[in-house]
Write a structure and sequence with these properties.
By secondary structure, the protein is an alpha/beta fold. Helix content is 42%, strand content 20%. It is built from 8 helices and 11 strands.
Length: 235
């Protein structure tokens, strides 16, 4: 199923609505996680990899607008805001802070799934055309510079040579600083969910990158292993 590897985070305090959304999204092949509290939802959104966030406006702990602002300051991800209010001011505020769209309760689950698929497709088109970085020309951490236009990579001012998949892996991880990705997520993202292969491919490429960008590959500071979870990039 085409959506099998896409993970959706629902931040919604109405357990009945959240359960219904989860059911319909899972029927359509998505992996779904739910958080009922705004603080926990924001923390999870920024610490795990998700393809899209369904964000309720009114939440305990932290409201949806604050969460949307916090997410937008740190990562680029489709956000679909859910609100029970029909006032235009809420819609304008939500979209003005970076929400990609809004949907007003009550809504049909068919419409919700259609909106989710549409925004995922749009996001994939944009990232394929412009890469994952918010910067048009690439990434610059000072010690590490990645030029997306030329595919050139510099470590401490010296250019290094990367194979195509090594470059894609580094660019993806660096574009999602501090976020943890499993081997399966990285394989599906960079090698394709329809391609049959060995998950050891990911570990091999991680080790090659460490050899090229780390001062001490045996004790890496930038491409870290999170045991039991996967890998993350730390600038």
């Amino acid at each position: 199923m085409e959506n099998t590897n896409k993970k959706i985070l629902i931040i919604e305090d109405d357990t009945d609505i959240a359960a219904l959304e989860k059911d319909f999204l899972e029927i359509n092949g998505f992996i779904v996680a739910i958080e009922e509290d705004g603080l926990k939802g924001a923390e999870r959104a920024l610490s795990e990899y998700f393809s899209l966030i369904l964000l309720d406006l009114m939440l305990p702990g932290k409201d949806g607008i604050s969460i949307c602002r916090e997410i937008r300051e740190k990562i680029d991800i489709p956000i679909l805001m859910v609100t029970a209010r029909s006032e235009d001011i809420d819609k304008v505020r939500g979209l003005g802070l970076g929400a990609d769209d809004y949907i007003t309760k009550p809504f049909s689950m068919t419409e919700l799934v259609a909106r989710v698929k549409a925004h995922l497709a749009r996001y994939e088109r944009l990232t394929q055309n412009a890469g994952h970085s918010k910067k048009a020309d690439g990434i610059d951490f000072g010690w590490l510079q990645i030029n997306q236009a030329t595919h050139r990579v510099f470590v401490n001012g010296s250019e290094i040579t990367l194979a195509h998949k090594e470059y894609e892996l580094l660019y993806f991880l660096a574009s999602h600083e501090e976020m943890v990705f499993s081997k399966e997520q990285l394989y599906d993202k960079l090698w394709g969910e329809d391609m049959y292969g060995d998950m050891k491919t990911v570990a091999v490429h991680i080790n090659r990158l460490r050899d090229k960008i780390e001062n001490n590959p045996a004790n890496p500071l930038h491409i870290q292993t999170i045991w039991g979870a996967g890998y993350r990039f730390m600038a």
